[in-house]
């Protein structure tokens, strides 16, 4: 259904910090890779979502719900794809690219959610690499638009997406919770 798309592993030194007296600081080398999530990633992804939900005002971490949602997506690639950013072989970030149909576009488009890089790995350009990877995957699969959801009060996240080329839409997000059937 969708093209397999995988970023080749690479060594990343990030920006080379310099001490005030002009001597370069030592930077630990790390191997990074982005690929599709597997069942083995779900527990770590739930941890990442818990970290993300502490930054968002609309959601609270509820591990079993997050695991259930991740399993739904993982088990049905027609719903979307889960991307994992790995640092030295361990999951350190994630993105959730949900697929929906746009009648305006006349075809499938992406709704990008749950983009997070673990706090200890932030500031190294890994979030940019992760989003670029999702954009390249969408492009390779002929998906003409990505809509991103971010907390309206999370100024750093909004600025990040703007730097990545996302623009504000005239559309507003509204939501209605539906109580479960009992």
Descriptive overview:
It contains 4 helices and 6 strands, in the order ββααβββαβα. With 182 residues, it is α+β, with helices and mostly antiparallel strands. The chain has a single domain (29-163), classed as Gcn5-related N-acetyltransferase (GNAT) (Aminopeptidase, 3-Layer(aba) Sandwich). A 6-stranded mixed beta sheet has the order 1-2-3-4-5-6, with helices on both faces. Helix 3 (126-140) links the parallel strand 5 and strand 6 (146-148). The termini are far apart. The relative contact order is 0.15. Mean pLDDT is 87; it is low at 5-27.
Q: Please give the domain count.
A: 1
Low-confidence runs of at least 5 consecutive residues:
5-27
| CATH topology (level 3) name | Aminopeptidase
Mean pLDDT: 87
* Biggest sheet architecture: 6 strands, mixed
**Alpha-carbon distance between the two ends:** 37 Å
The proportion of residues in beta strands is: 15-25%
Alpha-beta content class: alpha+beta
Strand order of the largest sheet: 1-2-3-4-5-6
CATH class: Alpha Beta
Order of helices and strands: EEHHEEEHEH
Record field, number of beta strands: 6
Distinctive features:
4 helices; 25% strand; 182 residues; alpha+beta; Aminopeptidase; six-stranded mixed sheet; single chain
